[in-house]
Amino acid sequence: MSRQANRGTESKKMSSELFTLTYGALVTQLCKDYESDEDVNKQLDRMGYNIGVRLIEDFLARSNVGRCHDFRETADVIAKVAFKMYLGITPSITNWSPAGDEFSLILENNPLVDFVELPDSHSSLIYSNLLCGVLRGALEMVQMAVEAKFVQDTLKGDGVTEIRMRFLRRIEDNLPAGEE
Amino acid sequence: MADEALFLLLHNEMVSGVYKSAEQGEVENGRCITKLENMGFRVGQGLIERFTKDTARFKDELDIMKFICKDFWTTVFKKQIDNLRTNHQGIYVLQDNKFRLLTQLSAGKQYLEHASKYLAFTCGLIRGGLSNLGIKSIVTAEVSSMPACKFQVMIQKL
């Protein structure tokens, strides 16, 4: 029995490594294809966005969470449910702005960078920028326009990885004319 | 953890990303396939290294192929290869009747010509894995009816 259980966790770990390695191969390829790090960052963000708009459906179907009443609740769901579900980590939420429209996600360890070292020649590459795109895309599908960006990154020598999230506005549904 | 969805979506983005940046045409198509294949190769190398860390030494080539079909495939695609055939002269055919990366495509004939885009990464994955186990190979894939597909592995004798 215990051996079986062991194997289960082993295979789970393996499949998250599959994602990590695949992501690494993708970033490497993009660095070859694009000339500047900024272009790579942009491309990663765009890909993340495309993933986010689809991932939200999977998330809602799997997680069974209901509507969030405010941005604080959204932050909680992102950190405790979404990150846990897809990356197996639970970032902590800190640094709320007084107005309650900005907060930080602190990632103690970021599974995307498990096997990564940034070479000096790519100092302005935001390696995990995909995540920002995913967050932006997913939240847009639930009527929230947000801005997400990395402000600290362990790859660049910071102690933790920090994603700053800012609420921009609520996206109003545009109902087709004549429908209520 | 539901990271499988994440991998599938990432793979889709990789394919469309690679193709979007390229121009139309037969030559370009080949170049895109190579790119995807190379990414898969790198991932396969890394993955097999982590994966075989605690397994017993393989007996022979067939033993390695079985490992790829069972353990490796299950980890990556959540199912085993359905059928493994060989001519015992270095050619192996791995058949998957419901290949995970094709299940999201419509099953008719309509997108058959696009299927190869979604197989290139996996071809590289197999080739990379084998290469790190000391086997040089050429891997190709073919689809006759979705979502089933066959991977043909040709071992290159040294």
Automatic annotation (TrEMBL), chain A:
It is found in: Endoplasmic reticulum; Golgi apparatus, cis-Golgi network. GO terms for cellular component: cytosol; endoplasmic reticulum; Golgi membrane; TRAPP complex. The keyword Transport applies. CDD domains: TRAPPC3_bet3. Keywords: Endoplasmic reticulum, ER-Golgi transport, Golgi apparatus, Lipoprotein, Palmitate, Transport. Pfam families: TRAPP. Gene3D superfamilies: Trafficking protein particle complex subunit 3. GO terms for biological process: endoplasmic reticulum to Golgi vesicle-mediated transport. May play a role in vesicular transport from endoplasmic reticulum to Golgi. Belongs to the TRAPP small subunits family. BET3 subfamily. Homodimer. Component of the multisubunit transport protein particle (TRAPP) complex, which includes at least TRAPPC2, TRAPPC2L, TRAPPC3, TRAPPC3L, TRAPPC4, TRAPPC5, TRAPPC8, TRAPPC9, TRAPPC10, TRAPPC11 and TRAPPC12. Heterodimer with TRAPPC6A. The heterodimer TRAPPC3-TRAPPC6A interacts with TRAPPC2L. Heterodimer with TRAPPC6b. The heterodimer TRAPPC6B-TRAPPC3 interacts with TRAPPC1 likely providing a core for TRAPP complex formation. This is Trafficking protein particle complex subunit.
UniProtKB/TrEMBL annotation, chain B:
It is found in: Endoplasmic reticulum; Golgi apparatus, cis-Golgi network. The keyword Iron does not apply. Homodimer. Part of a TRAPP complex. Heterodimer with TRAPPC3. The heterodimer TRAPPC6B-TRAPPC3 interacts with TRAPPC1 likely providing a core for TRAPP complex formation. Pfam families: TRAPP. Belongs to the TRAPP small subunits family. BET3 subfamily. One of its GO terms (biological process) is endoplasmic reticulum to Golgi vesicle-mediated transport. One of its GO terms (cellular component) is cis-Golgi network. It comes from Phodopus roborovskii (Roborovski's desert hamster). Its main location: endoplasmic reticulum. This is Trafficking protein particle complex subunit 6B. The gene is Trappc6b. Component of a transport protein particle (TRAPP) complex that may function in specific stages of inter-organelle traffic. Specifically involved in the early development of neural circuitry, likely by controlling the frequency and amplitude of intracellular calcium transients implicated in the regulation of neuron differentiation and survival. Keywords: Endoplasmic reticulum, Golgi apparatus, Neurogenesis.
